Amino acid sequence: MKFLFKTACLFFIFSLIITIDTCGQKPPIKFGKIDINDLKKTVYEIDSSAPAIVLCNYGFFYNKEFRLTRILRIKILKKEGLSYGNHVFNIQEKTNIRGKTFNLENGEIVETKLKNESIFKEKVIAGYRRTRVAMPNVKVGSVIDIEFISEGFPLEWTFQDRIPVLHSELLLPDSPYVTFRKNYFGFIPFKINTGIRWVTENVPSFDTEPYMNSYKNYISRIEFDVLRINHPYFQKDYAADWNDVSAYLWDLSYFGDILRSNFSSKGIAKDLNLDEKTVEEKIRIVFEKVKEIKWNGYESLYPENYSVAKAYGEKYGNSADINFALIQLLNACDIEAYPIVMSTRDNGMLSIIKPSINKLNYVIAYVKSDNKNYLLDASEELLPFQLLPMRTLNWQGQAILNKREIESVLVETNKKDKEVVFYNLDLDASDYSLYGTISSKKYDYAAYNYRKNIENFNSVDEYIEKLADKHYGLRIRNSVVNNIDSIYLPVTESLEVQIENQVTVIDDEIYITPILYERIEENPFNTSERKYPIDFGYCNEKSITIMIKLPDNCQVIELPQSINLVMPEDKAYFSYQIKQLGQILQLNCKYGRNKPLFIPDEYPILQQFYSKVIEKMSEPLIIKQN
Question: Residue 521 has what DSSP assignment?
Fold first, then answer.
């Protein structure tokens, strides 16, 4: 009865809201009414190279019905734009979707309707679903129309995309009873901005840059958060601050209730035999036990069911199923653990100043111990507990300690992409080939990335075969790879090789570029300026030792000069030292980044740093036969 009373009050409130005066403004488009000129036109002046273009993105909020209608119309211009026939939307749970694809055939417009079986929904946050829409009969030249009719406010409105947007418009009136916050982002100016109506036109595509965090952090958009409903018959605060967010989540049956109930975990905890184990050993055992639940590939803030018991039973679940099971089991083993709610990299960063329930789409585990705190995500089978997946490395999250206590936590890692490489080669003077061994040891993220890469092949042997094809002149006679399945150990790789066509002979001089297959050959930062931060996610470190034994009848004419480069505050470094020890040439090269994030002001220095590294790595040494 209490729920029905609140629902009735809400309906009464919203039925009293007066519809705004739109000054007679007519919608720029109507769903399903296509201009034949849009079907005939193949190139738009705004960007002739674009694979597709948004013809119109229009939304109108009806106060009386508390309902939002949105129409999205896209023209497919090229084969590369066919992917825009498939969309993923975070939309409200009670949303009606219609869609049509229009094609021009023999001078006539032919339409194909979107069927319900081509709409797929999954829960992400309370009241909202991640919805995948696969439009039918999409081809080059198609115009697609999608209409959404949903109850309540929009999560956000975007005025820019990775393709050009001819027209984007939103009408959203203020309400005397509902207080909501508008958060503006981006740099595109509005053609119209009245505070309730926003219009942009001819917005160019958003150009991504190498090593960017989500483009959603920078595109022009408005995010909306309901702060309070204030009516004589009903009052409720929502997201005025992060404590309100914590209280809201704590009261949800599929969030707070799961935290308060660990019945299914207590029995599992008894069987783990954790007596006399250190805290870190306990965490590792619990972590690997929970990984028996395989991730289904879906990211979510909430488990699919109201408990994690089903995920345990089926050994299958979304990211929240797995990480809630992890939090439960850690607590059942007397390890203090809490959920950290956050936004993934693809979803954009959270704001500390402007809290948002709608922006949350993921949860990880937070362990607090006397000596050290741990951030854990057990969804990735190939990650040890010390590493977080790249999608979670997104600045900060909020740890929910109880209903009214929340703690901001930096979601970062102190682990690196670390690799040690050793070449031990002999130069054959008869055919100028190099032969010997190449061995490497990969740690942390380097090991994880290697293991993930191996998954793309049927076997390690197939991977080694493709490796030889990838590197010009490389022949692999034998190979040994260890610790592929031991994720807490570094991956070691040892190759017996012969290297051809990597030595250049000009007259009687022999040129060898000693950093053979470890060179950075292209500067990822080749534009004159940078608009957005450079975000690598984590730091890296690579050490290379190359030893080349020369024939007795060869002498060194010229060696590259040694160099030592360090960016300000030791943010990045590069050292290159080469020396001769009798007939053996020894090169020691080491480089890396001690910082994962660089601001745009640091871009010129970083660009110059990489240019010098590439230049030095490409320098040859010169020898001569007597």
Answer: -
Q: Where in the chain are the domains?
A: 2-231, 242-411, 416-625
Determine contact, residues 365/336, Cβ cutoff 8 Å: no
Q: What does the pLDDT look like over 82-127, one tens digit per residue?
A: 999 998 887 777 789 999 999 999 989 999 999 999 988 876 666 6
Fold topology of 2-231: Immunoglobulin-like (2.60.40)
CA–centroid distance for 350 within its chain: 14
Nearest to 140 by CA among 87, 101, 97, 89: 101
Question: In the chain, what percentage of residues exceed pLDDT 70?
Answer: 93
CB-based contact 205:161 (threshold 8 Å): yes
The pLDDT value recorded for residue 227 is: 75
CATH classification code of 416-625: 2.60.120.1130
The DSSP 8-state label assigned to residue 530 in this structure reads -
Select the CATH number that applies to the domain covering 242-411 from these four: 1.20.1560.10, 3.40.190.290, 3.10.620.30, 3.65.10.10.
3.10.620.30
Strand segments (E) across 177-274: 178-185, 192-193, 197-203, 221-231, 234-237
The pTM score is 0.87
For the chain, the residue count is 626
CB hemisphere CA count around 498 (13 angstroms): 7
For residue 278, is pLDDT > 50?
yes
